[in-house]
## 1
Amino acid sequence: MADVAERAGVSTSTVSRTLRGLSTVSPEVRARVEQAARELNFAVSRQAASLVTGRTGNVAVLVPTLQSWFMGTALSSLAPLLRAAGMELNVYVIPDLAERTSFFERLPARRNADALLVFCFDLTDEETASLDNLGMPVVYVSQHVEGRPSIYVDDVAGALHGTRHLLNLGHRRIAFVQTIGASGFSFSSNERLIGYQQALTEAGLPLDDDLVVATEPGDKRGAAEAIGRLLSLREPPTAVFAEQDEVAVAAIWTLRKTQIPVPERVSVLGFDDQPIADWFDLSTVAQSPADIGREAGELALCLINDPDADHKRHIVLPTHVIPRATTAPPPQEEREG
Amino acid sequence: MADVAERAGVSTSTVSRTLRGLSTVSPEVRARVEQAARELNFAVSRQAASLVTGRTGNVAVLVPTLQSWFMGTALSSLAPLLRAAGMELNVYVIPDLAERTSFFERLPARRNADALLVFCFDLTDEETASLDNLGMPVVYVSQHVEGRPSIYVDDVAGALHGTRHLLNLGHRRIAFVQTIGASGFSFSSNERLIGYQQALTEAGLPLDDDLVVATEPGDKRGAAEAIGRLLSLREPPTAVFAEQDEVAVAAIWTLRKTQIPVPERVSVLGFDDQPIADWFDLSTVAQSPADIGREAGELALCLINDPDADHKRHIVLPTHVIPRATTAPPPQEEREG
DNA sequence: GCAGTTCGTGACAGCGTTTTCATGCACCGT
DNA sequence: ACGGTGCATGAAAACGCTGTCACGAACTGC
């Protein structure tokens, strides 16, 4: 910066003012400085600047994985937003318990970011508390944390509406396939189950535990087993509501392999509206991770500028039922029976 | 840090030495300092440290998108590696041309990272040159840049082996489905085509332009059109080699919808070995983005520690043909004809 | 016992910015 | 013409750390 100052024949103060766009610089000096900076290929050091301003210009993001549609999409909408605000995006990937404890022990984001976005974690109270002491605004994304700014979709309502869609088609035996993931990472599992149960109750149907099965995402074998359990019930379901599209697709795969036509014999409904849902013409309950990412980014930027702002509210985003080709009325005999 | 020094009854120099693990600190003093640091919940400011050391502790990563299996997997293996080395991961997402020009104009990573990993970009000479002047080691990942450290899989060999697999099964009419993506982002498209052509030539077969079609990934309609073009040829192919698993799956989908059994009537071979390939029992040519990410991270760390090291070499990773259930010998009449 | 070494420690000068404060200058109204 | 205002600029003090250098103490070998 001293070089730029010398070349432009001004002091470093003026260079600093110019480069930050402060208005108290005369036009001709500004031009000279900008020219000099360009010629010298100069860029201010964020480190040095942050040392005195106390702001790092970084936004930290804590994610359980990057290998998922949700994270990819959310971050892809978050990143340009931060970039436009002149912020850097710092990613912490915490795939397993070891990394997790190490993260919360060392808290590498401390003093190294102006805000932290925590994606999809089921945090313990202790962990939440340690983040409270981080000295920066923390936004909880895709999860519900009492008393802290949180952003999430209304999973209960989504599952409620999805189940109603199946009920309205005439289904009475509706199964729910839960997704059990790596422990400690919340994928809104319970809320979706609750929505499903609410819909059934609302329709005056009993809750049958046999109709709720679980599997892991990406586990073909597990999905087959779960479907197998449903197919071997005394009174098998005519519709399957899977908590995640991937599992729904696996279910369709299994069913069709066994010559059970979807949706003629069994309807399948997913949740998420991943691209894969479109490929398979899968009826699903859509959520928008892009919206989540954007909202989270905007909230974070707000909180950085005004940490005491009244943003401790929860932002709840909507879901939408998207009927495609895998949901249909149940087969005749079932409807009449 | 002054607080810690005071509490431990030592100077800041000693605190700094202790916290950096230098050996010239007596055990009892070390214990006192560590205790004090813990009690005060102290963490050194990377910004301040980097100001004097000249190292930022950041590794910047330039990616075209995060919404892809490849990026997600590569970064997921890269991240823990950097974390273990005490480095932060800084992500720049450049989804479109506007962001791209803005990135290369402002080069936000300048002075803000110790190394840059550029993923999957087809850079212009001008862009490469501007990265050369960045003052930090730049590693090109999943692309081939002359004279700079690059890491990529041997796409030519992969496609060659994949095509040979089809040839060995008895296929003689083998189509290739190219993927045309967002312009300027290299997905090794050409190299895979070259490998395919090499295999045909090697087998003494002519190159038929009609057998090479193109589509966009994720575009069901486009995939259908591409397959349609192949099916309406005078002599349609008995095997389809798609440059990406997603497209291969779309092809299978289209074929089966038209009652053309895969692999009985038409074999389909993919490339990448994404999780989706496993679900669909898709035969494919596997590459390992996890390995790529790891190699890239290790190389970057090497170059950071010793920028002049002899690492200007290219690291070429292997591919593996994984036969699953979508490749089989061509139907009888074809083989005998 | 004395010079020479080694070892642990502290004082202090930077690192490259921002920011405060002071300064000089032009401009205003009277 | 003169003091007051406002504006563009510069000098210099932080910011929080690291690294160099110097210093004293505790050793070593003769």
## 2
Amino acid sequence: MTKKTVKKAATKAAAPRGRPSSRESMLDAAEAVVVQQGAVRLTLDAVAKQAGVSKGGVMYHFPSKEALLQALVTRAMERSYIARTRLQPDSPAPGDILRAYVQASVGDPLGNLRVSSALLAVVASDPTLMAPVREFFSKRLPSIAPGVPFERAAIVHLATEGLWLMDLFGASPFTKKQRTQVVKLLGELAGNGGTLP
Amino acid sequence: MTKKTVKKAATKAAAPRGRPSSRESMLDAAEAVVVQQGAVRLTLDAVAKQAGVSKGGVMYHFPSKEALLQALVTRAMERSYIARTRLQPDSPAPGDILRAYVQASVGDPLGNLRVSSALLAVVASDPTLMAPVREFFSKRLPSIAPGVPFERAAIVHLATEGLWLMDLFGASPFTKKQRTQVVKLLGELAGNGGTLP
DNA sequence: TTTTCTGTGCCGACCAGACGGTATAGTAAT
DNA sequence: ATTACTATACCGTCTGGTCGGCACAGAAAA
């Protein structure tokens, strides 16, 4: 019945003290459940099963489901922030940060699927938990496009989010080639040089 | 003893002619529940309560929850389509349809909130039901922008969806003034004349 | 006209299972 | 012994779904 797996031994030693890997793997499991079964089936049992632990194990790390959702949204924002800043040059020219944001948002569809799944689960379960996300979103645009004209930054930002949305719904109307083309154009528009055909 | 005559054709071309009241009001109730409480709380009981009927009454019109979700997504697409085509001129010039789409997507935030809530409930509950929506989305862009260069149409389309997403999350980074400015710019870009600052 | 029949629309009680959460006993390593 | 973690059992509530029945409209029969 219950398979006692010992697979967590891998990262335990490598991980710095204080941040055990099982917690992270449970968050991974939660995202996987959302991707595979939908947000309403994100239950503690489902997370436990997916993570290969018991429900008690999940409850130990997350005292309530709300705590799980909160951790989910926190990690999603962290990842989103990290993915963006990692691509940033040390001394950015105007448009560089915006371009890094575009790349981070569309460059890793699978990673972004996880982020969006986490957010999806949160809006679906408890919209009030989205407050920090709202703030995160609201502050993003201003911080993202120094030296870029407002309208240009706004359009690039919105279009990037739109592409993200399409991925979330799996409803992109673009072929691979078209998508590449659009992404390239977004990158050019992020700099001040690009123009629209 | 209730003989269930199979005469009841499912939600096909059944136009809401004869009975606009109950069924529609239940769908309204479902959307209201999602808006107010989140998609996971979209239960048959909640819909019944919101609509002021009993659960049995809901089950009479929608034999299963899946049927309810399906009706929800169908109506959402219909509304979205209607809202767009209503703004269309009789003999559209290049860019007119695209501009009508922008206006429809951005002009009625409250109506769009209902549409997006319905879709949100569906992705959350059963992602597989989104298939028709995907098709709807995929066919929209090509049909929307005849005579407009692909890249331009793509950017306008994506940015509009992005704005829609921001509204859905209640996370618009724009002030009212800025939003108006962006919408205006989108309208200009929809025609072939607009340029980016 | 009055009575009987029939189908529609809805109700309320109920069920089996799933849900979030609690309590507790256990293991392995420090 | 303490700490860090896991597993099992259980509880009260909620879930989607079933079922028998009620009210009422209109058609049919008297």
## 3
Amino acid sequence: MAKTPHSNAEKPKARPRQRRKDARPSEIIEAAIAIFAERGFGAARLEDVARRAGVAKGTVFVYFPTKDDLFRAVAQTVLTSHLERLHGAAADLDRPIAELVPMFLAQAAAVIGEGRLPAMMRLLVAESRQFPDLARVWHDEVVSKVLGMLTLAIERAQARGEIRPGNARLYAFSIMGPMLASALFREVFRDTAPLPDLPELAEQHARTILDGLLLPDAS
Amino acid sequence: MAKTPHSNAEKPKARPRQRRKDARPSEIIEAAIAIFAERGFGAARLEDVARRAGVAKGTVFVYFPTKDDLFRAVAQTVLTSHLERLHGAAADLDRPIAELVPMFLAQAAAVIGEGRLPAMMRLLVAESRQFPDLARVWHDEVVSKVLGMLTLAIERAQARGEIRPGNARLYAFSIMGPMLASALFREVFRDTAPLPDLPELAEQHARTILDGLLLPDAS
DNA sequence: AACACTATTGACCGCATGGTCAATAAAGAC
DNA sequence: GTCTTTATTGACCATGCGGTCAATAGTGTT
């Protein structure tokens, strides 16, 4: 961990102090998201968060009494930012499953591809033991809801005779699983492996799930 | 983090010292796997690892100069223990895909359900940024190989006209994704949600992937 | 301009824990 | 039994970082 030789050729700017009580929390949270995503919760230093937020270390503690509290705030922020998008998709569960699945997966690809959800997933996976309450909240607010929506849509389609009988919840796993897996894949192997193209995966997986891999036997 | 009131009604046994140079490393690694799995790398204390291995803290450092080294040893151990099983499965890539996929998924369900691979996955996901070299090794030794085998099997089946054309690597994601996702799901939500039954998922997902969700239109 | 209020600061503290090492005692040689 | 070797120990050190707080300086008020 060699440290830059400390060349004080120029001081770090000493920007004049500013008072912006109400802008601070979100700025600090934003910085924390970046730092946590980069180093993980345990290895992240609050001083780095502070610097990134353009603030002194003490200021962080003014708004978040504890590192844990900051992490909770981060999780909560990312969560709510995604909840809104989720509510939007709650409509049209009764459309034909052959339309719904591709839409669903394309949507998932978009969310995963752009936002900070994958990084948050990584953090939650990493810290689920240290913060079981956060795991629970995310489960109840996101995972369970998404899974529930999908399951419901599937059951309705089954009732309509569109798709095969079978455990609807497991079908939901079949549908979502590859998207989640590839989201984490991208996080973990970002610099190591060729990353799967999300929209392409979404599109092909939708077709696969609906029609199956097998070609009709032409023999 | 209240500490037990330190009732020294009985000392921790003071077991007589033993010298077993060659048995130590594996014992320590075993203990480390347990502790890391339980608390994560960052939060794990080497003293706990030592106690669990029935050894003094200093002894750990005799065999593993650094906490990082211990983690690497842990990752390496779990890796090799799974590599053997992998080689076994390398055979029969040319069997009909309709047999291969269910076998593959059932195998995956078994490995995930019993061993310490899910915990190791969690650790790797968590620490992939701190230990990019480990991420790379796991990718090259496990992920890439599994994906490669599957991809190859799929391409051959395509050449035989068994299954649809399409990006074989993404097909591999479609096949494995749900198993990986549910492995992590179980790790993260172990105490929070009803856990999907792995063999059942494997079996149903195999059928879904092969035949698709849609029923032939009987209208 | 003087003042009051308080957001902000950064030097400081304490603790937890990774890491060291001189002392100790098992195990074997004789 | 005595001696040698060295695996093992646990008290100890050093450091990094979470967390505190008296001092400081924006900002609005008069």
